[in-house]
Amino acid sequence: MRIGLTGGIASGKSTVSLYLASLGIEIIDGDLLAREVLVLYPEILAYLKDTYGDLIFLEGQLDRRALGRIIFQDEKKKKAYLDVIMPKIIEEARKRLKKAKGSFVVLDAALLFEEGLDQDVDVTVTVFVPYEVQIKRLLQRDPLTVSEAVSRIQSQMPLEEKRRRANHVVDNSGSREETYQQINEILKSLGFGEIKGQEIEKKKKEEK
């Protein structure tokens, strides 16, 4: 069973992904792939160096926050960057889906629907929170101004649209226990099998 997991920035997708991993499910992490392709395909870094120079490099290393500040404020720059990096991320994601050995594997991808990767999985799950919660959590998490936070959120497909497209939705606006319970119910409906209550308790202890 190949599951596509998506959500918006600060929606809690990583929380869901970590819980799924704690159940022994293999995770293909799109954020990690975005970092790995920079090593696998040096031409991506060469493009960024030629385009932005020292603006996004710190002591020879890519400053991802600096890059984000630039591309999320300019739709043309964002599109140009995605046109370079996304084909490689998609290529690697598809390779790893094919190589996955477990009966359940999760492709954790923020741009699952935008890049058509929902066609490569059996079911899709959107992690959802209301817009107001998303803004609040993003400002608490990252050193951004309100306008920067709004720009980051608006640069993605609206969560309402992702919720509409998904086969399953996890409402992450409540407690973690409530979120975990929703995940358990989805997995049960997909034939994952019994999930013992201590899995949630174990996760809670690890997070303290």
Structural notes for this entry:
The chain has about 210 residues and is an alpha/beta fold. The chain is built from ten helices and seven strands. The protein has a single domain, classed as P-loop containing nucleotide triphosphate hydrolases (Rossmann fold). A hairpin with a 2-residue loop joins strand 3 (about 55-60) and strand 4 (about 60). Helix 2 (about 30-40) crosses helix 3, helix 2 crosses helix 5 (about 75-100) and helix 6 (about 130-140) packs across helix 7 (about 145-155).
The string of secondary-structure elements, in order, is: EHEHHEEHHEEHHHEHH
Major sheet summary line? 5 strands, parallel
Mean pLDDT: 91
Helix content: 55-70%
CATH topology: Rossmann fold
Structural class: alpha/beta
Question: Domains counted in the coordinates: how many?
Answer: 1
Measured by DSSP, the beta-strand proportion falls in 5-15%
Count of extended strands? 7
- Main sheet: which strands, in order across? 2-5-1-6-7
How many helical stretches?
A: 10
Overall shape: it is: globular
CATH superfamily: P-loop containing nucleotide triphosphate hydrolases
Protein name: Dephospho-CoA kinase
GO molecular function: ATP binding; dephospho-CoA kinase activity
Function: Catalyzes the phosphorylation of the 3'-hydroxyl group of dephosphocoenzyme A to form coenzyme A.
EC number: 2.7.1.24
What's the short version?
Keywords: ATP-binding, Coenzyme A biosynthesis, Cytoplasm, Kinase, Nucleotide-binding, Transferase. With 208 residues, the protein is α/β, with parallel strands linked by helices.
